[in-house]
């Protein structure tokens, strides 16, 4: 793994992920770990983290891991994101961990679990990604 926390060809997680406050702690083609805060800017009208935020974190971490695994052979794009919500969160630091379920020639599937500081699972998502190979 290089000193860069990003896959080949990626310079950043992107402005949206930066706005969400995603802080990468571990990045590889086998595992991605990040922390983020259940800040009020991420709340829906009832004062809990919006489900779309959980989906966005899931997609971001899965994409980073998949891109690391594919490397310089090409790029990846998400083609399906399915996220379940188990416990509403209003505040605190959350940790999300992405791990591969399947890594094949044309597609990858990654699972992402998000937990509170106490270890309570608040959401779990799965992203299917298409491998797009660079032209030779």
TrEMBL record:
Residue ranges annotated for the Thioesterase domain, each copy included: 46-122
SUPFAM superfamilies found in the cross-reference section: Thioesterase/thiol ester dehydrase-isomerase
GO MF entry, a single one: 1,4-dihydroxy-2-naphthoyl-CoA thioesterase activity
Domain of life where this protein originates: Bacteria
Cellular component annotations (GO), alphabetically ordered: cytosol
Gene3D superfamilies for the chain: Hotdog Thioesterase
InterPro entries tied to this protein: HotDog_dom_sf (IPR029069), PAAI_dom (IPR003736), Thioestr_dom (IPR006683)
Keyword Phosphoprotein part of the UniProt annotation: no
Alphabetic keyword roster: Hydrolase
Keyword Signal part of the UniProt annotation: no
Family: Belongs to the thioesterase PaaI family.
Protein name (database record): Uncharacterized protein (TIGR00369 family)
């Amino acid at each position: 793994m290089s000193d860069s926390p990003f896959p080949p060809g990626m310079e950043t997680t992107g402005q949206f992920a930066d706005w969400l406050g995603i802080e990468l702690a571990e990045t590889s083609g086998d595992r991605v770990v990040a922390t983020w805060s259940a800040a009020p800017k991420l709340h829906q009208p009832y004062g809990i983290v919006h489900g779309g935020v959980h989906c966005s974190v899931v997609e971001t971490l899965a994409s980073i891991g998949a891109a690391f695994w594919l490397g310089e052979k090409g790029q990846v794009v998400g083609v399906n994101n399915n996220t379940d919500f188990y416990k509403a969160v209003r505040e605190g630091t959350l940790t999300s961990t992405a791990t591969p379920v399947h890594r094949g020639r044309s597609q990858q599937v990654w699972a992402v679990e998000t937990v509170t500081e106490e270890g309570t699972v608040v959401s779990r998502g799965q992203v299917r990604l298409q491998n797009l190979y660079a032209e030779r």
